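in:
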Protein backbone atom coordinates (compact mmCIF):
# COMPACT_ATOMS: atom_id res chain seq x y z
CA UNK A 1 0.00 0.00 0.00
CA UNK A 2 1.32 3.43 -0.94
CA UNK A 3 1.19 6.12 1.74
CA UNK A 4 1.03 9.90 1.43
CA UNK A 5 4.42 10.51 3.02
CA UNK A 6 6.19 7.88 0.96
CA UNK A 7 4.79 9.31 -2.26
CA UNK A 8 5.84 12.82 -1.22
CA UNK A 9 9.46 11.90 -0.39
CA UNK A 10 10.12 9.39 -3.18
CA UNK A 11 13.47 9.90 -4.86
CA UNK A 12 15.18 8.89 -8.08
CA UNK A 13 18.83 7.88 -7.43
CA UNK A 14 21.15 9.50 -9.96
CA UNK A 15 24.43 7.98 -8.75
CA UNK A 16 27.28 9.41 -6.68
CA UNK A 17 24.90 10.13 -3.78
CA UNK A 18 22.61 12.36 -5.84
CA UNK A 19 18.82 12.00 -5.78
CA UNK A 20 16.13 13.76 -7.80
CA UNK A 21 12.96 14.54 -5.81
CA UNK A 22 9.68 16.36 -6.38
CA UNK A 23 8.68 18.84 -3.67
CA UNK A 24 4.90 18.93 -3.36
CA UNK A 25 2.61 21.72 -2.16
CA UNK A 26 0.52 19.11 -0.30
CA UNK A 27 2.68 19.65 2.81
CA UNK A 28 2.58 23.45 2.88
CA UNK A 29 2.15 25.32 6.15
CA UNK A 30 0.07 28.42 6.84
CA UNK A 31 3.04 30.35 5.36
CA UNK A 32 2.35 28.67 1.97
CA UNK A 33 5.79 27.04 2.06
CA UNK A 34 6.77 23.38 2.61
CA UNK A 35 6.71 22.19 6.22
CA UNK A 36 10.15 21.78 7.79
CA UNK A 37 9.36 18.25 8.95
CA UNK A 38 8.46 17.29 5.39
CA UNK A 39 11.80 18.66 4.16
CA UNK A 40 13.47 16.67 6.96
CA UNK A 41 11.83 13.47 5.71
CA UNK A 42 12.95 14.19 2.13
CA UNK A 43 16.57 14.57 3.23
CA UNK A 44 16.53 11.67 5.68
CA UNK A 45 15.03 9.32 3.11
CA UNK A 46 17.84 10.08 0.67
CA UNK A 47 20.49 9.58 3.36
CA UNK A 48 19.07 6.24 4.50
CA UNK A 49 19.30 4.97 0.93
CA UNK A 50 23.04 5.73 0.97
CA UNK A 51 23.80 4.76 4.58
CA UNK A 52 25.90 1.76 5.60
CA UNK A 53 23.73 1.47 8.75
CA UNK A 54 19.95 0.88 8.55
CA UNK A 55 18.55 3.23 11.20
CA UNK A 56 18.47 6.97 11.81
CA UNK A 57 19.97 8.14 15.11
CA UNK A 58 20.06 11.94 14.75
CA UNK A 59 19.43 14.60 12.15
CA UNK A 60 20.21 18.31 12.39
CA UNK A 61 18.93 20.61 9.63
CA UNK A 62 19.53 24.27 8.89
CA UNK A 63 16.98 25.82 6.53
CA UNK A 64 18.45 28.50 4.29
CA UNK A 65 15.34 29.50 2.36
CA UNK A 66 11.85 28.07 1.72
CA UNK A 67 11.58 25.31 -0.86
CA UNK A 68 9.00 25.63 -3.62
CA UNK A 69 6.83 23.01 -5.26
CA UNK A 70 8.68 21.37 -8.11
CA UNK A 71 11.82 19.46 -8.97
CA UNK A 72 14.80 19.48 -6.60
CA UNK A 73 18.00 17.54 -6.03
CA UNK A 74 19.56 16.11 -2.88
CA UNK A 75 23.30 15.46 -2.71
CA UNK A 76 24.39 13.01 0.01
CA UNK A 77 28.03 12.85 1.14
CA UNK A 78 29.54 10.16 3.30
CA UNK A 79 31.49 11.90 6.07
CA UNK A 80 32.56 8.91 8.16
CA UNK A 81 31.55 5.26 8.41
CA UNK A 82 32.08 3.99 11.95
CA UNK A 83 31.60 0.62 13.60
CA UNK A 84 28.54 1.77 15.57
CA UNK A 85 27.66 5.19 14.13
CA UNK A 86 28.12 6.63 10.63
CA UNK A 87 27.72 10.27 9.59
CA UNK A 88 26.50 11.87 6.37
CA UNK A 89 25.57 15.29 5.20
CA UNK A 90 22.90 16.13 2.65
CA UNK A 91 22.04 19.31 0.77
CA UNK A 92 18.71 20.05 -0.92
CA UNK A 93 19.02 22.39 -3.91
CA UNK A 94 16.51 24.01 -6.25
CA UNK A 95 17.27 26.30 -9.17
CA UNK A 96 20.97 26.20 -8.35
CA UNK A 97 20.39 27.48 -4.80
CA UNK A 98 20.88 25.56 -1.56
CA UNK A 99 17.62 25.25 0.35
CA UNK A 100 18.53 23.13 3.39
CA UNK A 101 21.55 21.30 4.81
CA UNK A 102 21.38 18.26 7.07
CA UNK A 103 23.93 16.34 9.11
CA UNK A 104 22.70 12.82 9.81
CA UNK A 105 24.02 10.06 12.05
CA UNK A 106 22.90 6.47 11.43
CA UNK A 107 23.35 3.20 13.32
CA UNK A 108 21.70 -0.19 13.87
CA UNK A 109 19.16 -0.49 16.69
CA UNK A 110 19.75 -4.24 16.78
CA UNK A 111 23.40 -3.60 17.72
CA UNK A 112 22.71 -0.79 20.23
CA UNK A 113 23.42 -1.04 23.95
CA UNK A 114 20.94 -2.16 26.56
CA UNK A 115 21.51 0.19 29.53
CA UNK A 116 18.63 2.58 30.22
CA UNK A 117 17.80 5.21 32.85
CA UNK A 118 14.41 6.84 32.24
CA UNK A 119 13.22 8.80 35.30
CA UNK A 120 11.05 11.14 33.20
CA UNK A 121 7.85 9.28 32.37
CA UNK A 122 5.38 9.95 29.59
CA UNK A 123 2.98 12.81 30.46
CA UNK A 124 -0.44 11.64 31.56
CA UNK A 125 -3.05 11.93 28.82
CA UNK A 126 -6.27 10.12 27.87
CA UNK A 127 -6.01 7.62 25.02
CA UNK A 128 -6.60 9.08 21.53
CA UNK A 129 -10.14 7.73 21.28
CA UNK A 130 -11.01 9.55 24.53
CA UNK A 131 -9.68 12.92 23.33
CA UNK A 132 -11.20 15.79 21.37
CA UNK A 133 -10.91 15.57 17.57
CA UNK A 134 -8.95 18.76 16.95
CA UNK A 135 -8.64 18.04 13.23
CA UNK A 136 -12.37 18.58 12.78
CA UNK A 137 -11.99 22.21 13.90
CA UNK A 138 -9.74 23.24 11.00
CA UNK A 139 -11.45 23.45 7.57
CA UNK A 140 -10.01 20.95 5.08
CA UNK A 141 -7.63 22.58 2.63
CA UNK A 142 -7.04 25.65 4.79
CA UNK A 143 -3.54 24.50 5.85
CA UNK A 144 -2.39 21.55 3.70
CA UNK A 145 0.06 20.12 6.27
CA UNK A 146 -2.77 19.73 8.79
CA UNK A 147 -4.68 17.56 6.29
CA UNK A 148 -1.77 15.10 6.24
CA UNK A 149 -2.33 14.23 9.92
CA UNK A 150 -5.08 13.53 12.43
CA UNK A 151 -4.92 15.24 15.82
CA UNK A 152 -6.53 14.37 19.16
CA UNK A 153 -6.07 16.50 22.29
CA UNK A 154 -7.22 16.07 25.91
CA UNK A 155 -9.01 19.41 25.48
CA UNK A 156 -9.47 21.84 22.62
CA UNK A 157 -6.58 24.34 22.53
CA UNK A 158 -7.67 27.80 23.61
CA UNK A 159 -6.40 29.53 20.48
CA UNK A 160 -8.78 27.44 18.36
CA UNK A 161 -11.77 28.76 20.29
CA UNK A 162 -10.65 32.39 20.40
CA UNK A 163 -9.52 32.15 24.02
CA UNK A 164 -5.74 31.68 23.96
CA UNK A 165 -4.45 30.41 27.29
CA UNK A 166 -1.12 32.24 27.40
CA UNK A 167 0.57 28.88 28.19
CA UNK A 168 3.01 27.75 25.51
CA UNK A 169 2.76 24.02 26.18
CA UNK A 170 0.49 21.30 24.85
CA UNK A 171 -0.22 17.58 24.73
CA UNK A 172 -1.64 16.21 21.50
CA UNK A 173 -1.91 12.79 19.87
CA UNK A 174 -0.93 12.67 16.21
CA UNK A 175 -1.09 10.07 13.46
CA UNK A 176 -0.74 10.10 9.68
CA UNK A 177 -4.13 10.80 8.05
CA UNK A 178 -3.81 7.54 6.10
CA UNK A 179 -2.68 5.69 9.28
CA UNK A 180 0.81 5.03 7.95
CA UNK A 181 2.82 3.21 10.67
CA UNK A 182 5.38 5.32 12.47
CA UNK A 183 9.05 4.88 11.57
CA UNK A 184 11.98 7.31 11.73
CA UNK A 185 10.86 9.12 8.57
CA UNK A 186 7.38 9.77 9.92
CA UNK A 187 8.54 10.43 13.49
CA UNK A 188 10.97 13.05 12.22
CA UNK A 189 8.23 14.70 10.17
CA UNK A 190 5.81 14.55 13.09
CA UNK A 191 8.09 16.52 15.41
CA UNK A 192 7.43 19.58 13.23
CA UNK A 193 3.78 18.85 12.44
CA UNK A 194 2.11 20.43 15.48
CA UNK A 195 0.72 23.96 15.28
CA UNK A 196 3.22 26.18 17.15
CA UNK A 197 2.21 26.56 20.80
CA UNK A 198 3.04 30.25 20.39
CA UNK A 199 -0.53 30.39 19.04
CA UNK A 200 -1.53 30.49 22.72
CA UNK A 201 0.17 33.92 22.96
CA UNK A 202 -1.27 35.20 19.69
CA UNK A 203 1.38 34.09 17.17
CA UNK A 204 0.41 31.15 14.95
CA UNK A 205 2.65 31.58 11.88
CA UNK A 206 6.21 30.38 12.45
CA UNK A 207 9.11 29.36 10.19
CA UNK A 208 11.82 26.90 11.25
CA UNK A 209 15.45 28.04 11.08
CA UNK A 210 17.15 25.00 12.63
CA UNK A 211 15.71 21.63 13.67
CA UNK A 212 17.43 18.75 15.44
CA UNK A 213 15.78 15.36 16.03
CA UNK A 214 17.13 12.52 18.18
CA UNK A 215 15.54 9.14 17.49
CA UNK A 216 15.31 7.11 20.72
CA UNK A 217 14.07 3.73 19.53
CA UNK A 218 12.77 1.83 16.54
CA UNK A 219 8.95 2.04 16.79
CA UNK A 220 7.17 -1.25 17.29
CA UNK A 221 5.42 -2.60 14.17
CA UNK A 222 1.87 -1.30 13.94
CA UNK A 223 2.56 1.90 15.90
CA UNK A 224 0.21 4.52 14.46
CA UNK A 225 -0.49 7.11 17.17
CA UNK A 226 2.19 9.16 18.91
CA UNK A 227 1.70 11.54 21.84
CA UNK A 228 3.41 14.88 21.33
CA UNK A 229 4.49 16.98 24.30
CA UNK A 230 5.25 20.40 22.82
CA UNK A 231 6.86 23.23 24.80
CA UNK A 232 8.13 26.70 23.94
CA UNK A 233 10.16 28.09 26.84
CA UNK A 234 11.48 31.36 25.47
CA UNK A 235 10.46 33.90 22.83
CA UNK A 236 13.16 36.52 22.35
CA UNK A 237 13.31 39.18 19.62
CA UNK A 238 10.72 37.28 17.58
CA UNK A 239 12.63 33.96 17.72
CA UNK A 240 11.26 31.03 19.71
CA UNK A 241 12.44 27.60 20.73
CA UNK A 242 10.20 24.54 20.52
CA UNK A 243 10.90 21.21 22.21
CA UNK A 244 8.91 18.13 21.23
CA UNK A 245 8.83 14.65 22.76
CA UNK A 246 7.05 11.86 20.88
CA UNK A 247 5.80 8.88 22.90
CA UNK A 248 4.01 5.73 21.77
CA UNK A 249 0.79 4.42 23.32
CA UNK A 250 2.80 2.17 25.66
CA UNK A 251 4.61 5.17 27.12
CA UNK A 252 7.93 4.62 25.31
CA UNK A 253 9.90 7.60 24.05
CA UNK A 254 10.21 7.53 20.24
CA UNK A 255 11.95 10.81 19.44
CA UNK A 256 12.93 14.19 20.81
CA UNK A 257 13.42 17.42 18.91
CA UNK A 258 14.43 21.01 19.43
CA UNK A 259 14.05 23.80 16.94
CA UNK A 260 14.65 27.51 16.69
CA UNK A 261 12.03 29.30 14.64
CA UNK A 262 11.07 32.85 13.73
CA UNK A 263 7.57 34.20 14.23
CA UNK A 264 6.31 35.18 10.81
CA UNK A 265 4.34 38.03 12.33
CA UNK A 266 6.75 38.95 15.07
Amino acid sequence: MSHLLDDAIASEPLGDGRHRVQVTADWHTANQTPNGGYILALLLNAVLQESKHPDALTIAITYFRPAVAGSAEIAVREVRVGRRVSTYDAVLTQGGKEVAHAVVSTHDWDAAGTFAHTPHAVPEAPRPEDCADVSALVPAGMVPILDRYSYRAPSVPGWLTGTPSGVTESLCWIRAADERPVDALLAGAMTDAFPPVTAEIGHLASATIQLTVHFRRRPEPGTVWALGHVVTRHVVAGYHDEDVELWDEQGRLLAQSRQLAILADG
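note: Residues 4-108+128-263 form a domain with the Porin fold (CATH 2.40.160.210).
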